[in-house]
Structure formats: structure tokens, C-alpha cells
Fold each of these.
Amino acid sequence: MELVLEADGLGRRYGGTWALRECSLRLPAGRVAALVGPNGAGKSTLLHLAVGLSRPDAGEVRVFGHVPYGNTELLAEIGFVAQDTPIYRDLTPEELVIMGGKLNRRWDATLVRTRLAQLGIPPGRPVGKLSGGQRAQVALALALAKRPRLLLLDEPVASLDPLARREFMQSLMGSVAESGTTVLLSSHILGDLERVCDYLIVLHSAEVKLAGPVEELLEGHRQLSGPRAAGARPIAGVAAVVRASHTDRQSTLLVRADGDPIDPEWTVRDVTLEDLILAYLTDDTVTRASHEAWGVPA
Ligand SMILES: Nc1ncnc2c1ncn2[C@@H]1O[C@H](COP(=O)(O)OP(=O)(O)OP(=O)(O)O)[C@@H](O)[C@H]1O
């Protein structure tokens, strides 16, 4: 199995605070991976380390087996669209296509022109005068024109309307299916991820909480509901309770299954990707610490 991205004990610190800590990951080739986590979880930090824009303070990251920091050779293989799509605002899309051709070894100008024409983006208007969503589309088209082997996208659909979002995701999927590009994209829009991603990485408070192929993760978790008292005892078939919520009479648990049959006292159902992400994103210890820092009761 070819690995595109490998991180081992990877960490990045700003001042005394870890933005990413003890991050260990393996992203196999050909995957479309979702990078999910609340604001400030460390997603952009991980993407910046992977593209070589910043240097680790601990551990290491490798892309196609090489250290990305300061590695201009490797940059030719990576397409990156940063969160705020910072493309030159005074240049027009057509000028950016020409510039891209001069700066990149592999450059598919026809691809980018066709894409932008389909999207109705005017070739001659300065990028700074396009809408935020149109700018995001231009940035993605330019990243795809590089024909990268790894495409890193930091919240690419945040500024798009629902229709444009769907179109963006569909065309992204179309392009990567054709080229076999591996994609790592961060997003808060869980519905979109469910449709397109086959690999999931959940970050919370600078740490990886969950990572793996979506199919395996869904297979390894179940949602249980049953009488509240039953939740107090160990449950057959359950390796760990990830998240529990209770009413006076009823308990609902999202659990990691251990492969054995689950105690028939519980009603068992499959989980969706959204159930899984939300369960791993809820972290009461963080909420408590934040309340303490603000001096307000939790
Ligand atoms: N240049 C910086 N200087 C200081 N702290 C930073 C810097 N960049 C990020 N951080 C801090 O590092 C942590 C992780 O930030 P990061 O941008 O990676 O999060 P994120 O998961 O991408 O968040 P969001 O979903 O809001 O984009 C945050 O606590 C943030 O405040």
C-alpha cells in the first residue's frame, strides 16, 4: 500500500501552546480524506506542515516519503488551496492561468480554462473583484491544473452557496477519480463529507481522536439505546463508550464494538459518518477548561 502522507509524533507549537501534538497518521494513496475538527483544533496547522509551509517542533511528517519543509521538488507534486484562498487579487483569472504555466512543470491550461468557463467566471476581471465563492473556484481550478498527486484543501467550500458547493464537490470528485489524486480536505460541512470522503481524520484540541477508512470506522461503531440502569454495567460486545447521553429513563450510547454480539438488552443501530464525527468532537474536558479560563460556571 503506497502511503502519501505519514506523520509520526508530529507537533507544532505557537509560543507555549501546542497547535498540533503527538499526531501520528498514515494516509494511503487514492483516498479522499476528510480532516474534521472544531475551530482551533489544528487542521490548518497539519495542512501547513504537510505542504512544507511550516516546520515541525516535534516528530516528523513525510509526503511521498520526503520531508516537505523547504523541499521545492516535492512542491511540484502537491496542490494546496489555503483557507482564505490568497491568490493575487490584482491579476485576472486568465493572467493566473498564464502565470501558472510559467511556474509549473506539468500544467493543464485547457483544464482550468474549461472549468472556469463552465462556472461562468469572467477571464478578464481581477480576482479581487470576484465573489468569495468565485475566488475559491479559481483557486481550486488552478490547484487542479497543476495535476498534483496530493491535493490539500483547507475549508474549500466555506464560502460557497449550497448549489456551488455541490458542484464544487462533484467536479472535485470527477477530477480526482480520473487522475487518482489523493485528497485531504478540511471542512465543517459534514453532509458534504459523507458523500465524497472515504477516509476520516478527526482532530480535537491539537490531537488526533480518530483516523481510518470510513467503511472500517462505521463498521467498528454502533449506537445503542436502552434503559438507563443498563448503562451502569459493562456491556457485552462493547470495547469502549465514546459518547453517552441520558434522559431520566433512557440511555443512548455511541460505542466502539469489539466484534462480539452486543448484549440483547440494547437496541442496536448502525452509525452514520455524522454520528461518528459528532461523538468524537464532543469533549467535555475542553468545555470545562474554557469555562475555568473565562471564570464563568460550566
Ligand atoms: N500563527 C499563529 N500564531 C499563534 N497561534 C496560532 C497561529 N496559527 C494557529 N494558531 C493557534 O493554533 C491552534 C490551531 O490553529 P489552526 O488554525 O490549525 O486550527 P483549525 O483547526 O484550522 O481551525 P479553524 O477551523 O478555525 O480554521 C489554535 O489554537 C490557533 O489559535
Amino acid sequence: MAVFTEVSEAQADDLMQSLNLGKLTALRGIEGGIENTNYFATTSQGEYVLTLFERLTKEQLPFYLFLMKHLAGRGIPVPDPAANRDGDILHTVSGKPAAVVNKLAGKSQLQPQAVHAAAVGDMLARMHLAGADFNRSQPNLRGLPWWNETVPVVLPHLDEAQAALLRSELAFQNHIAASSAYSALPRGPVHADLFRDNVMFDGEQLTGFFDFYFAGVDTWLFDLAVCLNDWCIDLPSGLHDSERAQAMLKGYAAVRPLSAAERDLLPAMLRAGALRFWISRLWDYHLPREASMLKPHDPTHFERVLRGRIAQPLSL
Ligand SMILES: Nc1ncnc2c1ncn2[C@@H]1O[C@H](COP(=O)(O)OP(=O)(O)OP(=O)(O)O)[C@@H](O)[C@H]1O
Ligand SMILES: N[C@@H](CCO)C(=O)O
């Protein structure tokens, strides 16, 4: 259940009418998700998603919402936040910041084949290019500074071998981030959390992707590494699937070829992507927040992925 804040039909109807989206005919709480309150709202005009932001602030939200609007305007299939007569896309419902977006068609593909990985690679590259001239900037709030802050907090919960791995990988990533090769990587707005549950498919056709609330400005290669670490890793073994990875890389490079610096640093960014989600899952697991984390994700999965990425670096 991901309804942390109740919204009445009257409240939702008022909002939908102020957005010129028609009269509310149905309102249904959405069960998935652990961060925000989400409802499907049906009106006389169509189907929408109403989100009340439980943790993100009014200062952080414009970056995500305007990025979605920018990408949607460029034909990227992402939810388009609805504006009121004054052009505002960030609203207030029950005292919480809120947004209304169009409902995307399709469903998640939780057992992807190479064809799905290729479609994600293609779409990710299109998103990177379409976002290149987005005029707002916000860092990836789950990037290196957050890893440096959070590792000492989770270390006491680990056994000796895990703690040694976490410390040494963090040192490696600090070293990489200070290198001139890393500075040469192209960057821009990235999704940073484009896992299987955030992409919709109709058969083999990618129909859209959502959940931009970990987006930020970072290297495009990091975004690709996050996708490779989810779409091209077998569950629950954590083993790399070469066929899906080659398909994703090919799909991406057909739209935006990787530079020499990106090819060189792909193994290091695959490790960075695994480290990022190992840390966040450890943090969520050992330091649960009130009224959230109904079912924390397994941190050991990304420990396995990281060990695999170190033992068998992916070479291009
Ligand atoms: N624009 C959309 N179109 C269709 N379905 C959506 C849309 N936005 C959200 N959903 C549905 O709502 C569910 C929850 O949304 P989401 O994943 O964004 O939750 P969250 O709590 O905000 O984030 P998290 O996944 O990080 O816990 C999704 O799994 C999806 O089924
Ligand atoms: N994709 C994240 C959850 C937050 O969206 C994870 O699997 O740890």
C-alpha cells in the first residue's frame, strides 16, 4: 500500500478541474511504490496519476517535474506534468507538494529479453540527447558525496569482509572521480534509477518510463551502467547476461556512440552503479524511515553484483 496521505474524491476533483483535465469519475490508490503517495485518477478526459510527495521538498521538485516536461515536449515517452491556468506544475494537496501526470500505457517487463534491453538502451540514449539543453541543474543527490556520507553510517552493520569491500570500493570510486579521464565524460540530466519496474512495455515495444525522483546531472555513462546492472543481470544470482548487455550497448550506441573515454571507464562505472545501490539498500535496510520501506530491497544482491563486476570487468 503506498497511500501515506489520504486524498478525498472532492479534493482530487477540484485539482483535476483546476488543471482543465475534466471531471473526476474514479480515484484509486496505487499499491506499488515506497516513496510517495500515488493515485490513479480517471476523469471524463482520460487517465492520470496523482502523486503526493512525502519526502522531496518544494525546492527539489521543480528540477524533476520540469525535466519530465522538457523530455515529454521532445517526444520522449515520459509522464508530462499538467499545468494550471497560471502555468504551475507543482501543486499542493493536503499540505503536501503534488503533481498530476498522464498515465502511461503498458506494463513492466520483469523478465526482459535482449529485445527489451536493446529498447531501453535506445531510449536511454534518446533521453540523454533530448535532455542535453535542459536549462535547470541539480546534482545527482545519490552521487559520490552521499556515498562518502553514508558509508560510515552503514559500516557498523556489516561483517568484516563486507566492510573491507565497501571501504576499498569507495576509495576506488573517489580515485576515479578525481581522474582527468572521468572529467572528460559527457554529462547531463540522467534518470539514475531506470530499473525494470520503472519502464513500461507493450510486448516488445517500449511505451514509456517514469519515476524521475532520483534524476540529476551526472555522467551519461553512469546512467547506462545503472541500466546494465539491472536489465542485464540475472535474478537472484546477480550474474551478468552477456546477450542482453550487448543488445543494450548496441541499442544505446546506435543513437549515441560511446567516446573512447566512456569505453575505458565503463568497467569502473559498472562498479559505481553497483556500489550506489548497495549503499542505498544497506541504508534503507538498517536505518528504516518511519512510514516507509514496507518491503526493503535485498542489499546483498548489489554486493554480489559489485563482486562480479570487480572479478570480471566487462570489456568492449
Ligand atoms: N505515469 C504513470 N503511468 C502509469 N503508471 C504509473 C505512472 N506513475 C506511477 N505509476 C504506477 O505507480 C506505481 C508506483 O509509482 P512509483 O514507482 O513512481 O512509486 P514511488 O513510491 O514514487 O517510487 P519507488 O518506485 O521509488 O518506490 C508504479 O509501479 C506504476 O505501476
Ligand atoms: N531501484 C532502487 C529502488 C529505489 O527506486 C533499488 O532497486 O534499490
Amino acid sequence: MSLQDGGCSYASSANMATASGSMRRRLEDQEFSLRVYPGALAEGTIYCPVSARKNTTAAEAIECLIERLRLDRTKCYVLAEVKEFGGEEWILNPGDCPVQRMMLWPRSALENRSGLGSGDDYRFLLREKNLDGSIHYGGSLQMWLRVTEERRRMVERGFLPQPAGSDPPSDLCTLPELTERAILESLRARFRQEKIYTYIGSILIVINPFQFLPIYNPKYVKLYDNHTLGKLEPHIYAVADVAYHAMLQRRRNQCIVISGESGSGKTQSTNFLIHHLTALSQKGFASGVEQIILGAGPVLEAFGNAKTAHNNNSSRFGKFIQVNYQESGTVRGAYVEKYLLEKSRLVYQEHNERNYHVFYYLLAGASEDERKSFHLLKPEEYHYLNQDCFTVEGEDLKHDFERLQLAMEMVGFLPTTRKQIFSLLSAILHLGNIRYKKKTYRDDSIDICNPEVLPIVSELLEVKEEMLLEALTTRKTVTVGERLIVPYKLAEILSIGVLDIFGFEDYENNSFEQFCINFANERLQHYFNQHIFKLEQEEYRAEGITWHNIDYIDNSGCINLISKKPTALFHLLDEECNFPQASNQTLLDKFKRQHEGNSYIEFPAVMEPAFIIRHYAGKVKYGVKDFREKNTDHMRPDIVALLKSSKNAFICGLMGIDPVATFRWAVLRAYFRALVAFREAGRRHTHKKTGNDAAVPCAVVKTVDSFSFLHHPVHQRSLEILQRCKDEKYSITRKNPRTPLSDLQGTNALNEKASWDGYGVGCNGRSSRSGRLSSTGSPALEEDGIFLNSTSSKLLERAQGILLRNKNCKIKPTLPKHLLDVKSLRYLSSVTLHDRITKSLLHLHKKKKPPSISAQFQASLNKLMETLDQSEPYFVKCIRSNAEKVTTAAEA
Ligand SMILES: Nc1ncnc2c1ncn2[C@@H]1O[C@H](COP(=O)(O)OP(=O)(O)OP(=O)(O)O)[C@@H](O)[C@H]1O
């Protein structure tokens, strides 16, 4: 190093001085692990690791060894350095520094310190000094080394117990003393040996090394395949493997819950787990499903991750990835549920933070044509991007954009859909540049300072410019229902869920987001307690094992304070959101009145619009400012109406007007109505023949006679769709613009030149592969045997025949056979039952007030907990090795 530095004589000397100065400082501060072999002085110990810095003396190291190995203090000891196997021993003076000696050893000696016979054997020995000053050797050095080496191998193979004072165990439950200190020291010692994984029973601890270790290649996938936990060195693959085989053997769903603070490695661990879970099931062959699952990672990352002060690639949402398997253990598909995306980041970022990655990727990676058609500018020219920082060290945005495009393709986004998404992103950025001014001095109404942005946004969103201007400058007070996101349920399939949820947060200013995040953590901690302490102890008791109950912090009180009906904080907040006169103070007063005296809540002594919650992980102070606004984060109806009017099917889809869902229900209705019609027509026919009036109620006869259901706009629309579907023509034009669509939310999407080749975006905003509309049915659904022909189609054909013969019927629909299987219908009704369009088509929901954000969040958490409760859990706890994201494993 010094030679190289010296060689760069033309480099700026000031720079060099700074660089070498900081390098020197770093070396001074670094901690190294010395392995000292005590030989006969401590029977059973092969070597004892001692932490030392560059200036730690031999005397200090010996003092530490006396302590650790509990040696006789009345005796004298020295450190001896052995260079090369069988070579001479060099006795260190008390003031010599062993680390400095070690730094002169060849690299191979440091990398292979235990290897006997490597040719490069360098080590420190602890020797006893006789009274006359001579060294007490107690046997030949070579002999002694051979014996200790043999013993080491025996220990490694499990024939001898782990000696005290040697390497900390891989499962900390086997530590003789289970104190916090002992646990931390063991983790630290293991980390220094680049062992980032450690078990505490079945819990896996991961310490983020901020450098990639070569322990994730296929060799390791194979190594950990089908082993009981704890047999091999701890590894994240071992957890995935155990979950996989437990699922297959016990036929029960499994889940892996990953927790830890921001930047501790949760997402990385999730990626490793998913990789291993898919690799296990494919046994080395990358299948289409695996490609899609792995491709989803970069897409989620681009849209949901951002640079924060703590992590350059921080996930700003929680996610639960459920990998679903067939009975045989082959991956069937995966499903991602997302929680609480940080929306505020779009418009505002804190110091040293950025907006979502995808914006920077797009601006850096778009081609010249794309730049033109999306009207792209430079990042500095957008208000949403130029608030603080633009770059992240070491990133290659062009490459990232290419990677994103590839990943989007892998997961099934067609080029048209991708274009529509990027167009929307560009519209968001331009919208952020709109500036307002007062219209007139006396008037409070507003106008737009830079109207030149409007045609651009209107083009990108495919909405009328006048409507856009109106939506941006006026506010309508009518409220409409908001979407309630209910995930699809894939019934009766084995699964392994991986939960990567935001960690506990306590910042300088904590708001509603932190309150929700920390509540989620309380719920997960409760789940953890249930499994690790409560259920385990109950099992011991049931089996008659002597067991003293251990105390753990039961956080039910805190959970009740926040969410238990009817007076919990979330409910009081909802109440206040309904009062137009409410203020921060009235909210706080309500909290106080209801919960004064509750040990989980405090109010600051100084008049401050804040409250303090005693969480399991510590106290957090929340400022109530914006709580009410953030809890009622509803889309304004006029903005929703504007976006609904877009000619772009993707944008309509975002507003819950999912053409695919509308289509599905239209098909369903057509089917059932036709079925009823056919039955009734049959009965009527029989009645005519037999003259038996009583067999047919009049009302029914009337209905069938007139086929009034066909005149219902829903039905007309359904039949049109079916007809078009059959003809494989997807450019649908509005036939009857005056059709009343009030109870048909979403059908206007069908009237636009929707890109039917695109993948549908589900009502919950999820891109849905199964949503592809094609005349042969969705490929994904076909795979599941959904749109298959069946005998029921014959029935429909006959029903259809009757319909066509009827004079009143103006439309001549032809029902495609493949859409008529009863199983398909059942499937469709189960997957669409909860979506808003379905509800409105079935009149299941009247215009109710939309649920508050906290209510939605609680509902999705409850759902998650239900899933977790039905699974066997594994826990992965991630720890950040340092706050500076520095590569440290071997040096800490
Ligand atoms: N096992 C690992 N090996 C190597 N590097 C890792 C490992 N785990 C994490 N890292 C590094 O640490 C960085 C932060 O990790 P990650 O993004 O997974 O944290 P996180 O806990 O998900 O953070 P957040 O909650 O902010 O999303 C990663 O970008 C990666 O560089």
C-alpha cells in the first residue's frame, strides 16, 4: 500500500495526505481479532479470540486472556508469535503490539489461520514464564499443535463439546450464560469471522455486513437442501429450506416474518429467501413462474423504494409475499400484498432523501423518442425531484432503467402498458411543477401561473384540458365511495409467506405514518410473543416439563389502547375526522379525556400538540398535526372523475374502473340471466302444452315474455362485450352514449379505445396477469382450467337461441363457449366478489362513507394476522452492523 502510494507522485499531495491520514486513523481505530492458542494452559480450549487495536500491547492482551481463561494470576505469562509451521517462536515483550506483528503476516496466513499443513502457519501462543525467566514449553510445539488441531476437528464434527472461551456457538441457546452481554459478544465475535447468521433456537439473527459474501451461490442452495435446522452453519437458506420441507411434510402453510430497523437487511433477506424457495421447488430449472417472481422484485423496488438518510434503497412500503405451491412442491405462483406506501414522498422529501427511484431511472434511461413523447425534462427541472439530492453513490441509472424494463416485461407488462405507466409518471412530475396565484386581489379563487403545463399533462393523462383545469382550480364537495382493498384469496393451496414489514420508527418528528408503522410492529411483536413465549410455555406445561414461567413484555395493553373498539385512539381519531369543527387540540383533548391514567400513554408536560406512547420498543412522541388530514386521505371526487374520463385504459383502471372486472361481471350476469330465461321459457312451453296455469307464476311469465333484462344497460353491455370478444375486436366504440351508467361504475372504460392487449390492472390497483382479455380466455386462468368448455355451454346455446328468436331483442349476441363453465363462474365470483365494481353491479354497496386510512390499515393488518395465525412461523431478526453502511464484517 505504502509503495503504491509513494508511486503516485503526481497525485495531489494534499489529497494524498488527507487520504493517507484518514486511512491511518481508520487503522488506528479498527479492531482486530487475535487468535491466541493457550495450549496446556487451558485444557479444552483450542484458541481464544481477543479483540485488539493496532496499539494494544501484549501485556493488555495477556490480561484479557487471564480473565477469559480464568488463569492463575500468581503466574507470569508471555505471548509468543509462531511464524511458519514448526518455525521458531518469537517472544513478545509486554509493550510489543501483536496486531502490528500480525499485519506483517502474509495474506494467505490471515485467510487460513487454522489450516495445519498449509505451509503458512502463523499464530500467537500463550506461554507460561518460569521464575528464572525461561519459558515453560510443556512438550514439543509440533506435537502440541497437532493435538489441538485434532481436537478442533473433533469439536467441529460434534464428537467433543464446544469448549468454553473458544468460538461462540452458532446457536446462542447453548451459551452457558444467556445474558444480553453474552449474546452481544457472541454475535460480535461471530460477525468478525464473517459469520453473519446466528441462531437463537429457531430464530435466525442476521447482521448486515454491507458486503456480499460468497455464500449464496448454487453450491449453498444444494448444501442446505433438506437439512434439519442447526445441523449446518446458520444460513438464511436453512430457514427457507426448513419451511419448505415442513410445508410438504405437515401440509401446513408456513410463514417467515422478517423484522429489523431500516437498512438492517430485511429486503435483502427476503430476496435470498424467495430465491431459495423458488430454486428448491424448481431444482435448478428456472421456470416461467420463478422468472415472474424474481422479476417482480425490481419492479416493486423501482416504484416503492427510495434513497433515505438511513438506506440508499429503502422500501417505503411493507410487503407480504406469498409463494403458492402445488401439492408436489412445485411453485404455482406468488402473490404480493403491500402495506402503507409512503405517499407523501411523492411531493416532499426530507434532507438527504430522494423521491421514488423510478423517476430518476426514467429521466436518465429514456430514449430520445420517449423523451419527446413523454415530454421529459431534466431532474433539476422538476419540483418533485429537485428538493435536495439527485444521486446515489455507485448507481447507474441507465442500466437500472433497462433492468426495470426487462423486469416489467418478465412479469408481463406489455409495451403499451409500460408506455402508459411512464406517461403517467411524467404527468405526475409535470403536475408537481404547476404553480398557483390568486386570480384577483380581492377574490380568493386561484389561477395557474404556468398554464403551458396543462396541455402537456392533458396529453399525458389523455383527459380534456378544460376538465383538468377545473379539477386543479376548483373543489367539489360531493363525496363518493372509495375502494376497499381486499386481496384475492387463493383457497386450499399450500404456501410460504415471507413478510418484510417496515421496522419500528422513532424520528425527531413522528407523525401519523410512524404511528401506523409502530402499531404494525406492536401487532407483530405480539404475534412473536405468542409463539416464542406463550405457546411454547403452554406446550411445556401440557407435556409436564418442569418450567418456570418467564416474564416477557406483554404488549396487549398498548395494542388495545391504539385499536380496541370503541374508545381506542384510532377510533377517536376517526370520530374527530367526521367533525368539521375538529382541530388538533380537540383531538388531543379527546385522547386525554378518554385515556388519562392509562400507563401506555402520556402527554408532554409542556403544552405541545403531541402525545407519547410507551411501545414495547420504547417511548415515541407523536405530533398530532396532520393526523386528521392524513387519516382522511380520500381522493377528491372531481379528480377521480377527471381520471375516470381519461381515454387511457390504464389510468381508468387506476381509478377502480377495471375493464376486466366489468367484463367478468357482465359475463356472469349474462350467463345467469340467460339461464333463468331458458328455464322459464322451458316451463312456459310445458305450461302451454299442458295448460297448467299454476305451474308458472304470472310475474315470471311476464319477465320472460318481454326479456326485460336484456334492455337493462348492464345486460346490453355484457352482450356487446361477448360479441366483440368473439370477434376478437377490441377497439370498442361507444354505441349508446346516453346509456345511464350510474349503477354501472366503470363501463365507460369499455367505451374508450382501451388497449385490450394490455394487462388488466385490478380494482385494487394490482397489475393482474389473469386480467388479460383475449378471445381464448386469459392464459393464466386457462392454466387453472378455468375457461374450459363444458356441457353447460349447450344449455346456454339453447338459451341464446330462444333469445334470438324473440322479436323484442334487438341485439344478436353470440356467447363464446369457453366462458360458460360453472367452475369458471364460481372462480370469477370468488375473485371479484370484493371489488367495487362487482359490488355496485350487484348493488351490494350503497354510497357509504369511505373507510378512513387507519381503518383500512387495521383491516389489512387483521387480514395479515389471520394469514399468519394459520401458518407455522419462523422469525428472522435483522441487525444493522453500523449506521454508516460501512463494510465491516472481518474488522468489527
Ligand atoms: N446479507 C447481506 N449481504 C450483503 N449485503 C447486505 C445484506 N443485507 C443487506 N445488505 C446491504 O444493506 C443494504 C440495506 O439492506 P436492505 O435494503 O435489505 O434493508 P431493509 O432492512 O430492507 O431497509 P428498509 O427498511 O429501509 O427497506 C442493501 O442495499 C445491501 O447493500
Amino acid sequence: MASSSAGAAVREDAHIEISGLTKRFLTPAGEVFTALEGVSFTVEPGQFCAVVGPTGCGKSTTLGMVSGLDRPSEGSVKVGGREVDGITDGVSFMFQADALLPWKSVLGNVLMGPVFRGVPKQQAQTAARDWLRRVGLSGFEDRYPHQLSGGMRKRVAMAAALINEPKILIMDEPFGALDVQTKAIMSTELLGLWEQIRPSVIFITHDLDEAVALADRVVVMTSSPGSVKAVFDIDLPRPRGSVQEIRFQPRFIELQQQIWETLREEVERAYARTAGGKA
Ligand SMILES: Nc1ncnc2c1ncn2[C@@H]1O[C@H](COP(=O)(O)OP(=O)(O)OP(=O)(O)O)[C@@H](O)[C@H]1O
């Protein structure tokens, strides 16, 4: 363990090293399609890393290999210095679609993780109630997912992910389906909770403002086949406070513009390709 500048201690085994990651798929027509080509970047223990890039550049494919759900064609992912060759231990996920079980109550959804890990039911229930309190959902324990708003469902998903105290948190556009205000509120809440647990985070988003506001490091990917175009360290101080307000800081605007200059070309190239123009 090492102490961090903001909140909880970070775990050295949460270091993520992605080197020369290449992924090829076989298309239905039997052709080889290269989705990723030599992707390399690192996420330091307890660091919040955002990945941005045009649609189809291989962001989700990269996450699949960090989690161990998929295998690289070439290259490697190492977590805590060990090569990932199965499902990575200590990883929690949040996706754009709610991964909540509709037939389980809010409490039931949140305590599932600890119960699967063998935590006695009583203890798991206490922890789940505590996490629901932390995400502002005390009093909603007996509701079912369909009885909640989109923002409330995200809070449940966040409690369900963080109750496991993961060393790595993988987030694939977790707030992509929310309205702008709810998204800003959820992002601020996520930062507060992340500071309490300090997992290493890989956060995929199409929203560059969101990436800069949340992250310590922003990785910009090229259009397909995806590779790393540039890596930006975000030197905005922590704790960041309100995600909505940070957007008015001169340094935020400067970083946002700098990264957009790099990203724009790739977005335009990907658009030209899908629109049938020349890349
Ligand atoms: N199992 C698969 N078989 C064939 N091609 C695949 C497979 N999975 C992904 N791809 C292709 O790999 C490319 C990268 O997909 P991926 O979903 O990783 O992109 P992305 O950057 O996450 O996209 P988006 O931003 O639109 O979510 C796409 O062209 C996709 O069609």
C-alpha cells in the first residue's frame, strides 16, 4: 500500500500495463479485421485514466482484454506485474446499460457481490445498506430497478460495483445515457466515492469534458485500427469538487482545447469513413 494525495491508500497491485496490444477479428466474410494495433499505455495504481477516441476505434475491445474476458492477438496486459490470462481478480464494472437484475430489489442487487465472494449474508446486508447510504439511496432498499429513475439506477450500479472494494474499476460510458445535469451530478459523486476506495480506473467516454474533469490521465486513440495517438496528464488539483464548476477554470479550458486539437482529426477521419468519404 502507498498513500495517495487524495483520500484512501492505493494498492500497488492495481498497476495496469498495456503493451503492444493488437487484436484481430475474423469477419463473417472470413476476412481478418484489425481492431487494435500496438496499443500501449499504463495506469498507475489508484489513477483515474480516461480513454477517448472516435467510434469503433477499439475502446471496448481494449477493456475486454484488461478484464480478461478476451485475449489479445499480440501484446499483453499486466495487472500488478502479472500477465492477464483469465478473468482479472478484483475488477468491478460499470457499463452504459444498467447491469441490474430486474427481479432483485435494490438491496438484493447490491449485496450480490459480497455474497458471491462468500461474505456471510448478515454482514453483506450491513455493507449493502451502508453503500446505499453512501450513494444517497437509504430508504430505497426494497424498491426494484424498474421503480427507480435512470440516475437512481446508476447509483445502485455504483454501490454494487464499489461494495466489492475493487482494485480496478472498468467503466464503459457509464453515464452515457443520462441527461446532462444528472450526468454531472453522478460524475461528481463518482469522484467522491473513488477517492474513498481509490481503485485504478479506466473510464471510456465520448465526452471530452467529462474525461478532463474526472481523469488524471487522458489517452487519445486513433481511428480504426485503434492505436494510442497521445497521452495527456491532467494537472487539475484534487479533490476536484463539482464536475460542473471545474469546466469554467482556465486550466480546464486550456487542456480541453489542447486534447480536442488531437482528437478532432481522428473523429473527422472516422466520420468520413462511415459517411463514405475518403479517410
Ligand atoms: N467480436 C468481434 N468480431 C468482429 N469485429 C469486432 C468484434 N468486436 C468488435 N469488433 C470490431 O472492432 C472495432 C472496435 O470495436 P469497439 O466496440 O471496441 O469500438 P469502440 O471504440 O468501443 O466503439 P464505440 O465508441 O462506438 O463504442 C469495431 O469496428 C467493431 O466492429
